[in-house]
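Example record used in the benchmark description.
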Amino acid sequence: MKQLTMADIEYSNRKKKTKREEFLDAMEEIIPWSQWVELIRPYYFNNTRGRKPIGIETMLRMYLMQTWFNLSNEGIEDSIYDSYAMRTFMHIDFSEQQVPDATTLLNFRHMLEKHKIGEMIFADVNRRLDEAGLVMHGGTIVDATIVAAPKSTKNQNGKRDPEMHQTKKGNEWYFGMKVHAGVDAGTGYVHTITGTAANVHDVAETASIS
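Model output (C-alpha cells):
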C-alpha cells in the first residue's frame, strides 16, 4: 500500500474536484488496463541487457493523457510534473521514478502506430464511453498539434525519418509529424486521433475525423 504524503493529504481535503480529475477518475475505472498491456507486450521493447525498460502501463497512461488533452511530447511531460491529478493517474512516485521523457514517448507512439494498436485502443475506449453515457455527441471540433522529430542525420541510417516533414507555423519552421484530434464539442473528450506528416493541412483531415 502506498504511503500518503503531505501533498496527498492536503489534496484530498479539497471541497471540489476539477473536471480533469473527474475525467481521469472515470477513465481509470473504464479502461481494461491489464488487457491493453497484454495487447502491447508482444511489440514492446524488451531489453534483456542494460537498462530496464519503462513499464508498459506507465507509457500507456502517458500516451493516453497526451492524446486526451492534445499535448505535445514535451507538453505532456511538463504537465505531469505540474498537475497532481495527472501525476496520480500516472501512478508515479517521484522518490522511485521520474516522468518518461519526450523521446521515449515519441518512440512508444511510433510503435503503437506501426502495429495499429492506437486505433484499436481508441475504438475500444470510445465504445466503453458511449455505453457509459459519458460522450454527449455534441458535434466535433478538429484541432492539430505538431510533434517535433529529431532533425539530425547523425544516426545509424544517416537520414531523417522519411515519414516526417517540414512545415511553417507563424514565423517558425518545424520538422516532424502532426497529430489531428477530433474533440466531442459537448464533453471535450478526444474521440478520434490521426497522425500525418507535419506538412499535411488541418483541413485535409477534417472530413475523416468529423
